[in-house]
Structures are given as structure tokens and as C-alpha cells.
Amino acid sequence: MNKTAGASCLLEGIGLHKEFPRPEGPLVVLDDTHFQLREKEAVAVVGASGSGKSTFLNILGALDTPTAGELRYRGRPLDTRDQKVVDQWRLDRVGFVFQTHMLLPDFTAYENLLLPVRVRGTVPQEQRERARRFLAAIGLEDRATHLPGQLSGGEQQRIALARAFMNRPEIVLADEPFGNLDREIGGRLGGMLFRLRDEEDVSL
Ligand SMILES: Nc1ncnc2c1ncn2[C@@H]1O[C@H](COP(=O)(O)OP(=O)(O)OP(=O)(O)O)[C@@H](O)[C@H]1O
Ligand SMILES: [Mg+2]
Questions:
Q1: Ligand 1 center to residue 50 CA distance, Å?
Q2: Fewest Cβ atoms closer than 10 Å to its Cβ: which of 61, 90, 141, 198?
Q3: What is 51-115 written as a DSSP string?
Q4: Taking Cα atoms as reference points, which of 76, 79, 97 lies closest to residue 88?
Q5: Per-residue pLDDT, 118
Q6: Ligand 2 mean position to 60 CA, how many Å?
Q7: Given 3.40.50.720, 1.10.760.10, 3.30.365.10, 3.40.50.300, which CATH number is that of 1-81?
Q8: Which of 17, 31, 51, 99 for a ligand 1 pocket mutation test, highest count of atoms within 8 Å of Cβ?
Q9: Which of 74, 75, 53 is CA-nearest to residue 64?
Q10: What 3-state DSSP class applies to 136?
């Protein structure tokens, strides 16, 4: 049935509740939401605009804290209030593709790819070569020196996508990475995303 059945639970959200305070009363976006991601699994979260998908993914990636509920990584609670622990966990284990590409405008395509590596410390030669390989894999080897503003929307998204895999994450959280692209390009990038996932052996 499910090829991942029995695989251990990588990331788990238990009773996640999120509300935003407002003058007219709190806005409840997540109400007792449960979620499980097993190893090698790919999960899609669907819902109408404004239904809380980005909020949910931000909580799963510990970029935001739930009002109530718990996040577990490999069965252990993740203390989302301990910023240092959470930052390190995210850096080591999680790759993000945001709804908007979030490339740094003053860095070239190649430098943007290496950003997550740089944040962790010095960039080993092996990672420089990996960034070059990724550029080739997404068909942008001849755009390495372009700034994001000198890339098309789809090219920017491809860089953002590859960047999420640079630190060899276990989990990639992708928030409608192709939402603002046309169908054909979106489809192609989707294929690319799954190819990277298979080659890099991550959960999505
Ligand atoms: N920081 C915030 N403060 C108050 N309300 C917020 C905040 N962030 C999000 N919201 C509200 O929470 C709801 C869910 O937002 P979210 O961005 O998670 O939706 P979404 O499902 O990702 O939508 P889309 O498909 O348009 O990206 C929205 O109605 C939004 O107005
Ligand atoms: Mg969203």
C-alpha cells in the first residue's frame, strides 16, 4: 500500500493550534492540527488561499511558534522556545522553499546557492563543486554570476529550490514553490523537485 509504511516518524505536529491576536478577537488559523512526516515520504498540504498553509509550514519548520501543541523530531519534542537549539536544528536538518523565492538581491545565483552552507561556517571546496553541479542540474550553469534581479521568475525559483537542498537536509518544506509560475514551468520544476528529493534522499 504505502511504501513508507513502517518507516519511522521524522517530523510530527501534535495538537497544533495557532491564533493571531486582533482587536476584534483572536483569529484561529490552526485548530488542533495533527501531522506526520515519515522518512522518504512526500506530503502535500492543500487548502484555499488564507486557510493557513504557510502558517502551518512555518510552524513545522520552527520559523514560527504554535499557540499550543508540540513539534516532535524523530519522536523527541523540539523545544521551539529555545532559539539556539531550534536554529541549529533547522540549519542542519531542514531546507526551505518559500512562496516567494527569498533570494538575497545583492548575491549572485551561485552565491545564493551557497548561503545556507556559509551560515554554517566556512564553505568547503566540495560544497562549491556541489553548487556548480546543482546549477548545471537546473540548467543555469551560464547564469551563475547573475543577480536575482537579472534572472527570470522561473530561474529564481529554480535557484531557491536547489538552495533548499544544499545542506543535505533531511526535510524540505516547500510552500507553493511554483504557485506564481505558469503550469508548464511549474510542472517542470515539480519534476526537478522530486528528482532532487530522490537523489538527495530527503523527505518533502
Ligand atoms: N502574523 C499574522 N498576524 C495576523 N494574521 C495573520 C498573520 N499571518 C497570517 N495571518 C492570517 O492567517 C491566515 C492564514 O495565512 P497563511 O499565510 O497561512 O495562508 P495560506 O494558506 O498560506 O494562504 P495562501 O494560499 O494565500 O498563501 C490568513 O487569513 C492571514 O490573514
Ligand atoms: Mg501561503
A1: 5
A2: 198
A3: SSHHHHHHHHTTSS--SEEEEEETTEE--TT-HHHHHHHHHHHEEEE-SS----TTS-HHHHHHH
A4: 79
A5: 93
A6: 14
A7: 3.40.50.300
A8: 51
A9: 53
A10: helix
Low-confidence stretches of the chain (pLDDT < 50) are: 1-6
Q: For position 186, what pLDDT does the model report?
A: 66
Strands 9-20 and 68-73: antiparallel
Ligand 1 and 50: CB distance under 6 A = yes
Taking all residues of the chain, what is their mean pLDDT, rounded to a whole number?
87
Ligand 1 close to Cβ of residue 51 (< 6 A): yes
Q: Write the CA distances from 175 to 75, 118, 132, 135, 140, integer angstroms.
A: 24, 23, 25, 21, 22
Q: What is the pLDDT of residue 45?
A: 82
21 lines ligand 1 (CB under 6 A): no
The protein residue whose alpha carbon is closest to atom 8 in ligand 1 is: 55
Residue pair 134/112 in contact (Cβ under 8 Å)? The answer is no
pLDDT digits (tens, 9 = 90+) for 118-142: 988 899 999 999 999 999 988 899 9
Note the CATH number of domain 83-204. 3.40.50.300
What residue spans in the chain does CATH classification 3.40.50.300 cover? 1-81, 83-204
Which ligand is closest to the CA of 33, given by its number?
1
Note the ligand closest to the C-alpha atom of 58: 1
